[in-house]
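S2.1 Query sequence (LpxI N-terminal domain-containing protein)
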Amino acid sequence: MKKLGIISGSGDLPFLLAKSVADHGMEPIIVQVTQEMSPELGKIVNHIHPIGIGQIRKIIKLFLDSGV
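Output C-alpha cells follow.
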C-alpha cells in the first residue's frame, strides 16, 4: 500500500486530506505538530505521531521508516 506523509496542524484540512488519501487507497501517516487536532482524524488513521515542528530530523526519519 502506498503511503503519504502529512504534517498536520489544527483545523479541518488535515482530516480532509487524510480522508481523501485513504479514499484513494493510500495510507496517511500523520505527524501532529499542534496540541489541537480534529477528533475525526483519529477515526480514519492508524497512527498519529505527535512531534514538535522543531524536530524536523525526527519527522523525516519517521516518514522514511514508515516507507513514505
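The chain is about 35% helix and 20% strand. Helices lie at 13-23, 41-44, 56-65.
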